[in-house]
Amino acid sequence: MKRATLLLLVWLLSAIDFSKAHETMVFQSAPEEIIRGKPIYLTFAIPSKECDPVRVSIFYKTDVDALFKEFKLVSHQGIYRFPIIPEMTVGANFFYYFLIIECADGKIYGFPPANPKGKPLKIKIVDKVVE
């Protein structure tokens, strides 16, 4: 398991443009779409020197939900994963989410940085295509 986590971290870090690292606190591996009924993970890394995360929460909902739900993420060697299970996508067309990061120095950051709750990240939910 440690090897898989290390490989995932290396893969995530290889795609990072470190010249912009001061502007971005969260790096993610997210799909362009979610296939309805298929479990999937959203994966995040927070490699910032400006923040030692003490709490990282994802707030998520679908277009059929009225309110966001909170899920506390747990770090596994600096990697945070959130499972999207099939039951979450029933009857929905879009999955919305944002992160809130609380740092050891008391600062709080959101991701995406500009208005995370008002403009959350969005992933389209599609039906599986049978060929």
Question: Please, could you describe this protein's structure?
Answer:
By secondary structure, this protein is mainly beta. The protein has one domain (2-126): Immunoglobulins (Immunoglobulin-like). It is 10% helix and 42% strand. The chain contains 1 helix and 10 strands, in the order αββββββββββ. It has one helix at 2-14; strands at residues 27-29, 33-35, 40-45, 53-62, 69-73, 75-76, 79-84, 94-103, 108-111, 121-126. The strands form 2 sheets. Strands 2, 4, 5, 8, 9 and 10 form a 6-stranded mixed β-sheet that branches. A 4-stranded antiparallel β-sheet has the order 1-3-7-6. Strand 8 and strand 9 form a beta hairpin. The chain is elongated, with a radius of gyration of 15 Å. The chain starts with a helix and ends in a 5-residue tail after the last strand.
CATH classification class: Mainly Beta
- List how many beta strands DSSP finds: 10
Number of alpha- plus pi-helical segments? 1
Largest β sheet strand count, sense and barrel closure: 6 strands, mixed
Q: Catalogue the unreliable spans.
A: 4-23
**Average pLDDT over all residues:** 82
Please give the share of residues in helix: under 10%
- Name the helix and strand elements from N-terminus to C-terminus, one letter apiece: HEEEEEEEEEE
Distance between the ends: 34 Å
